[in-house]
Design brief:
5-stranded parallel β-sheet; 14 strands; 27% strand
């Protein structure tokens, strides 16, 4: 087993403490602060020369969190760390992985370039919005999933015989097929047309949802507008209930209030993004166990693919 030390960026203390507890590892000494104008400063308050370090970094917006990662990677490289492994549960800009206009940016590639040029050697992340993003990196990506945790939760809280899995778009069909193979249930898909980001002009359901407990599976939820509109449509089509499982709870704008007042019976998200408060019909599942297992397997040179296989243990 490789020797390593876990460090936390300032936005990730709670998640890091949970991960380090599961790994039975101490959290290393990393100091971070800001100057009066907002400039980020970090330093390692212990020697990391020749060591493997694991940086736990929740780099959701504001961009200060992302830039703190760049500065910390650079500090580690200049402090002669042997290997820098960045645990980034959520990758911002993942929805901009291709050009949708002749004059738009592929900013997911830009994020990859920044992280790589800063000096990261490896990344561990959860439920990428698109697997094509892996191709933007020249360094290894350990891509893990919340499938097993979500499947266990679904199996525990709902009647498997009455479940209908629903993908919010055609791009998510591959994701829910993995759940269908284990839960052995019906599935449906929502066809939607977008006017602009976060705004859908129309949607229709493909599949039979009448008298079913609908489970929507997605990688992220932002404003919640599309999800709430989908829930209303499913209920109008005769669905008995609507539950949703989304790994990354971005929950921007007034998303929490919108979901609370919607027809969604339960929304389950994870702590890949920190949350101070969730709505009354929302539940949190921690990603710390899967991240701790991935780190442990990586350090022991064990298979990650086997760990990622969906099933009911």
């Amino acid at each position: 087993m490789h020797s390593y030390t876990v460090f936390s960026l300032s936005n990730s203390l709670s998640l890091t403490n949970n991960i380090s507890h599961l790994l039975r590892k101490r959290v290393g000494k990393l100091y971070a602060t800001k100057f009066s104008d907002g400039e980020v400063y970090t330093r390692f308050d212990e020697s990391i020369r020749g060591e493997t370090i694991v940086l736990i970094a929740q780099i959701n917006l504001p961009y200060t969190n992302l830039f703190e990662l760049f500065v910390t990677i650079d500090a580690a490289r200049r402090a002669s760390a042997k290997e820098i492994i960045c645990v980034l549960p959520y990758l911002p800009h993942s929805r901009q992985e291709r050009k949708d206009d002749t004059r738009s940016s592929i900013s997911a590639r830009l994020i990859a370039d920044f992280i790589e040029h800063a000096g990261a050697d490896r990344i561990i992340t959860i439920d990428m919005h698109s697997t094509s993003i892996e191709g933007f990196y020249n360094i290894p990506i350990v891509h893990i999933f919340m499938n097993n945790d979500f499947v266990r939760h679904i199996h525990t809280h709902l009647n498997p015989e009455n479940i209908c899995l629903c993908s919010p778009d055609f791009g998510g069909l591959k994701r829910i097929k993995q759940y269908k193979a284990i839960l052995n249930c019906d599935m449906a898909v929502i066809h939607k047309e977008r006017l602009r980001p976060n705004q859908v002009s129309s949607m229709e359901i493909i599949g039979e949802v009448k008298d079913k407990d609908i489970v929507i599976i997605d990688d992220m939820i932002d404003t919640g507008g599309t999800l709430c509109k989908a829930a209303d449509l499913l209920l109008q089509q005769g669905a008995r209930s609507v539950h949703a499982y989304c790994t990354h709870g971005v929950l921007s704008s007034n998303a929490v209030q919108r979901i609370e007042s919607s027809g969604i019976q339960k929304l389950v998200v994870t702590d890949t993004i920190p949350h101070e408060k969730l709505g009354k019909n929302m539940e949190l599942i921690s990603c710390a166990p899967v991240l701790a297992s991935a780190i442990d397997r990586l350090m022991r040179n064990k298979s990650i693919q086997q760990f990622n296989q969906t099933g009911l243990p």
